[in-house]
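Hi V.,

Quick status before I head out on leave. The structure for the redesign project is tokenized and pasted below; the design run finished overnight.
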């Protein structure tokens, strides 16, 4: 992936995080209240947004740390994606998928730790 594509993807994911946050707060407010899952939606948005910003930060480097970037992308899709679906549908089995996304997010941070150690 080129740096330009990485920046565009990161920016699009940031845009999506804001849009989903607003959609959850307004468009899905009654549904999330009915399911009692507003906090789950908010957690999905929080992790989505933090890691979208991180993707953008990584895409601004001269050389894209591809492994970390890929893990963060997968983490957003799996962790936040499963929480969005869980909150909207109240299908609790989706909670079994969420830790896989969490592991991807952790792996992204670990890749940065190990990559930084190698360049020091």
């Amino acid at each position: 992936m080129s740096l330009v594509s990485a920046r565009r993807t990161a920016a699009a994911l940031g845009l999506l995080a804001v849009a989903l946050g607003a959609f959850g707060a307004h468009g899905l407010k009654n549904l999330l209240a009915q399911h009692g899952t507003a906090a789950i939606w908010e957690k999905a948005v929080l992790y989505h947004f933090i890691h979208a910003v991180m993707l953008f930060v990584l895409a601004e480097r001269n050389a894209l740390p591809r492994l970390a970037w890929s893990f963060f992308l997968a983490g957003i899709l799996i962790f936040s994606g499963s929480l969005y679906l869980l909150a909207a549908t109240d299908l609790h089995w989706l909670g079994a998928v969420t830790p896989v996304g969490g592991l991807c997010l952790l792996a992204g941070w670990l890749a940065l730790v190990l990559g930084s150690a190698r360049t020091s």
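Above is the designed sequence. Residues 3-119 form one domain.

G. will cover questions while I'm gone.

Best,
W.
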